[in-house]
């Protein structure tokens, strides 16, 4: 049997281009080993096709679901972002690649920077740079969105709270990583 990972185009990951920060009230941690991939079904997503690739039922608009070491997040109709342990993401992408002409599969791990923003001031820092409503009611745990982050764009996911505080996964284009960190760190950042 052929190795399904052989058919995926994979670029080696470079060292993280931006560092996070630990400041009063907020921490931004780089997720250097997080894999990021995108799967877009070209002929409409059937429940069977989605289950064949991801092993679970499709999450609704703006939602995500965990499956093993990966999380599948809704991006748009028939379009899904896969995040998690890099090898696990590659395995899921290889399964999707087996659909051949029915899916567009892209490993974005080398082109994206992923961060976790936590702490009592995390929500305020994020809210200062996006028009997205990130309140508990609008973006509860397990929900996702694409939105502006100052002068760039981001994918934001509300992940499980830690120590009673909100946690946000923020993914930006790697070329905008330093900028995103600077915006979230605030004007007094070094």
Automatic annotation (TrEMBL):
SUPFAM superfamilies xref list: Folate-binding domain (SSF103025)
InterPro entries assigned to the protein according to its UniProt record, in alphabetical order: SoxG (IPR007375), TrmE/GcvT-like (IPR027266)
Family annotation (Pfam families): SoxG (PF04268)
Highest taxon listed in the record's lineage: Bacteria
Protein name: Sarcosine oxidase subunit gamma
């Amino acid at each position: 049997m052929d190795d399904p990972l052989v058919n995926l185009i994979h670029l080696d990951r470079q060292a993280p281009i931006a560092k996070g920060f630990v400041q009063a009230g907020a921490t931004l941690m780089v997720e250097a080993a997080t894999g990021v991939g995108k799967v877009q079904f070209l002929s409409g997503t059937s429940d069977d096709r989605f289950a064949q690739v991801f092993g679970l039922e499709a999450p609704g608009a703006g939602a995500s679901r965990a499956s093993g070491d990966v999380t599948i997040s809704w991006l748009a109709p028939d379009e899904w972002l896969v995040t998690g342990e890099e090898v696990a993401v590659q395995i899921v992408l290889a399964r999707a690649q087996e659909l051949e002409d029915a899916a567009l599969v892209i490993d974005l791990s080398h082109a994206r920077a992923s961060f976790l923003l936590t702490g009592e001031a995390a929500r305020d820092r994020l809210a200062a740079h996006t028009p997205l409503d990130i309140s508990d009611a609008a973006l509860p745990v397990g929900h996702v969105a694409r939105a502006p982050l100052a002068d760039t764009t981001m994918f934001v996911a509300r992940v499980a709270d830690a120590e009673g505080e909100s946690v946000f996964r923020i993914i930006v284009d790697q070329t905008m990583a330093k900028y995103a960190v600077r915006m979230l760190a605030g004007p007094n950042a070094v």
